[in-house]
Structure formats: structure tokens, C-alpha cells
Design goal:
Length: 391
């Protein structure tokens, strides 16, 4: 099958759409086996691991596909940004809905990690109110509200009803309406993108098989430092909490909350304050040339390469390298701060053979007087990253 030029343009957008479909399918299977009662949730996950290995693989596929989906939407964004899609006259809604889609995506990640309700889920649930606590005026009451509003059932409803609904509405405006107007519609689009997405699907299948979440305690108990230096699907959200490892109070909130929110808002309104200059062809001047190509010195240095490769291949290589470098700048820090996290090792201490206290998350879990550690971010994040030292 010949792949249209336009499809390569939103290659990662297409990958993301397919992964979203994988998430809906695998998620639907998981809802059949999950029990949202506090004392049963983790048991229902463990039951899958002990009795239904295919469903366990589907669960790990769901975890890894979530990570790949997040990477795909970020790559999709980087490419659109470098291509200056925000300058297109009629694509402001496209841009805005694209940026807004990150919100339900994050919502999925947060609620998804909480749902299994082992100690990782418990940890994440307690960190969400801590995360907003430092905000001026509303912080403490918002934090209290989140604590009292939390139940596993509500988290499940968010994860399988509200967030999918929001995502589908935004996706409707973002792509579906346009894609469906084309010949072949959505079906052809998905079919055309399937071969392009195959390498990713294969990688997810292998990762889900090779790096499953160890959930077979107490029959098989992991080591406390399991997961150190091994990529886990949960790394992505940890990055929001890592600032608490190095900073306290306002400084931590600055890096964990304010800076991401400011970046998000600036990107969302980007098309509304960038100026367009029209070229002769009616297209935008900025879109016709690559910013690097417009800088004289760079063109001079690169002239021999351009000659050797030919103009087309040269432009393609340049675009590829730019995307590669920008994505490394984004994903490099993610690796740098998360690779020490022994995410797979929590159950080594937190399992039922270590006694009730360390077995299931305690019934007093919301009570920060009974469990003072919960509101101590330095303890919480330190314990996640260095559980053998900080406990
Ligand atoms: C080396 C053993 C060990 C490992 C590994 C470990 N923990 Fe803990 N954890 C403990 C102990 C012991 C406590 C109780 C500390 C206290 O009460 O002072 C604790 C406390 C906690 C608490 C505080 C709330 C409470 O009820 O006391 C949370 C949350 C938690 N662990 C989550 C995790 C997570 C998530 C991981 C994996 C990243 C993990 N733990 C790995 C031993 C461990």
C-alpha cells in the first residue's frame, strides 16, 4: 500500500489514534476483571496474575501502551510545533483541542495508577492532594476536598466514563470530523496507519511480556530495588513529583506545578498571538522555510552537505535531526530523574507476609494525623525513590 504524504505528516498523530483504540479495547477487557472495593481491588489484580496469564498480559499491554501513547502525542506535538501548524489560518481549533487533549491524558495516567490499589496506587492517591496543597488561597481546601472525595469507585468512573467521554468529544473536534469527510473515512485512515504503527505495537507486546508489573506476592516476592534503571510505564507521572525530592515548599510547587501550568497555557494560546506573514504563494512565509535554513551562517556551513545529499533529502534529514534533538531534550530529563526509581520493588516489603501493617494499604489511609508520613512530601518521594533508606 502506498502511503500518502499527508499521512507521514501526522505519523505520530496516527500512532496515537491507534494506541487509543488499543487502550479502549484492552481497558474494556480489564473492567471485566477489576473489583473497585478497597479490600478487593488489589486481590482482583493479583487474581488475574495468578490465574489468567493472557489477561495479565493485556493489563501490562494497557500499562505500556499508555506510556507509548503519551510519547506519541508529545512527538506529534513536537512535529506540529516545528512545522508551525499554529500559523495555519483555520487550524486554531485543531491546535487548541490538541493541547486540551493532554488534560484527559494526564487524568487517565493518574487515575490509572491509583486503581490497582496496591502501595503504588495508595502512594499516588495521597500525592495528588499534596500536589495542590501549596497553591495560594484554594490549596488547603482543594487538598481537603480531594482527600474526602476520593473513593475507588469514583476513580473508576473517572477512568472508564468521564475521561473517555471528554477525550472522545475533543477527538471528535480534533480529527474525527475532518477525517470522516475524506474518502474512505476513519476506517481507511486507521487501516492506512496500522502498518505504520506496527513496530510500536510489537514493541508494546514485547515489553508487556518481558517487563510485567510484579503482582504475584506473596507467592513471588520481588526485591526492594527491582525496577531500578529498568524503564517502567509509570515513569511519566513520577516526573511531576520529582521536584519534591530536591526542593521544599514553594520551590517544589514552582517546578512541579507552576512551570508546567504556565508552559501549558502559553502553548494553548500560541496561535492567538503569533503573527502571520503571507508569502507570494499565499502560504505563510514562516512555513515555507525552515528557521535554520533562514540563518545565513548555518546555510553556508551546511552547503557541502546540501550539495552531497540533494535539496530534498537534505531538508528531510534536517527536519528529522531537529525533531530528534528536541525530543531528546524533553525525554532525556525524564530518564535522568526517573531511572533510579525502584518501581517494581514496592511489594518486597509491602506484602501480606510482612504483616497487616505492610500488607494492604491501611483502612486509615486518608487520616493524616494517624499517618503523618502521608503529608510529608520529602518522605513520600524519598521513600519511592530510596525505599531501602527512607522508611
Ligand atoms: C524496604 C522495604 C520497603 C520498600 C521496598 C517499600 N516500602 Fe513503603 N514503607 C515501608 C515501611 C517500613 C513503611 C512504614 C514507615 C513508617 O510507618 O514509618 C512504609 C511506608 C510507606 C508509605 C506511607 C504510608 C503508610 O501507610 O505508612 C507509603 C505510601 C509507601 N510505603 C509506599 C511505598 C511504595 C509506593 C513503594 C515502592 C516504590 C514502597 N513503599 C517500597 C517499607 C518499604
Amino acid at each position: 500500500m502506498k502511503i500518502k504524504q499527508a499521512h507521514w505528516h501526522h505519523f505520530f498523530g496516527g500512532v496515537a489514534l491507534l494506541l487509543l483504540i488499543i487502550q479502549i479495547l484492552s481497558g474494556s477487557v480489564l473492567t471485566m476483571f477489576y473489583d473497585p472495593h478497597l479490600n478487593e481491588a488489589y486481590a482482583s489484580v493479583q487474581k488475574i496474575y495468578n490465574e489468567l496469564s493472557v489477561v495479565a498480559w493485556i493489563r501490562d499491554t494497557h500499562r505500556w501502551a499508555a506510556l507509548f501513547l503519551m510519547v506519541a502525542v508529545i512527538m506529534h506535538f513536537i512535529r506540529s510545533f516545528l512545522r508551525k501548524d499554529y500559523l495555519n489560518r483555520d487550524s486554531k481549533t485543531l491546535w487548541l483541542t490538541g493541547i486540551l487533549l493532554y488534560l484527559p491524558m494526564l487524568g487517565f495516567l493518574f487515575t490509572g495508577v491509583i486503581l490497582p490499589w496496591e502501595w503504588r496506587g495508595y502512594w499516588f492517591m495521597e500525592m495528588v492532594p499534596n500536589y495542590v496543597y501549596e497553591l495560594p488561597l484554594i490549596g488547603p481546601s482543594l487538598s481537603d476536598f480531594l482527600i474526602s472525595a476520593f473513593t475507588l469507585n469514583r476513580t473508576l468512573v473517572m477512568h472508564v466514563c468521564i475521561l473517555p467521554a471528554v477525550t472522545l468529544v475533543l477527538m471528535g473536534i480534533h480529527t474525527f470530523t475532518r477525517v470522516m469527510k475524506r474518502t474512505g473515512g476513519l476506517t481507511l485512515y486507521v487501516l492506512e496507519h496500522t502498518p505504520l504503527t506496527l513496530p510500536f505495537l510489537l514493541a508494546i507486546a514485547v515489553l508487556a511480556y518481558a517487563l510485567p508489573m510484579p503482582s504475584q506476592d506473596p507467592a513471588i516476592i520481588p526485591m526492594p530495588l527491582d525496577g531500578e534503571n529498568i524503564p517502567t510505564a509509570e515513569w511519566f507521572i513520577l516526573i511531576f513529583y520529582v521536584p519534591y525530592l530536591y526542593f521544599k515548599g514553594f520551590m517544589a510547587t514552582l517546578f512541579a506545578f507552576y512551570i508546567p501550568v504556565i508552559i501549558f497555557l502559553v502553548l494553548a494560546i500560541f496561535p492567538y498571538f503569533t503573527r502571520r506573514r503571507r508569502g507570494k504563494s499565499g502560504r505563510n512565509i514562516e512555513q515555507e522555510t525552515h528557521p535554520i535554513e533562514r540563518s545565513g551562517a548555518f546555510t553556508k556551513i551546511m552547503a557541502p552537505f546540501q550539495k552531497a545529499l540533494g535539496a530534498r533529502a537534505y531538508a528531510k534529514t534536517l527536519a528529522f535531526l531537529t525533531v530528534f534533538l528536541v525530543s531528546m531534550v524533553l525525554f532525556g530529563p525524564l530518564y535522568a530523574v526517573s531511572h533510579k526509581s525502584p518501581t517494581y520493588g514496592c511489594n518486597s516489603c509491602h506484602n501480606i507476609t510482612a504483616g497487616l501493617r505492610l500488607g494492604l494499604p491501611p483502612a486509615t489511609f486518608k487520616d493524616r494525623v494517624m499517618n503523618p508520613n502521608l503529608k510529608d512530601n520529602t518522605f513520600m518521594v524519598g521513600h519511592w525513590f530510596y525505599p531501602q533508606v527512607i522508611w
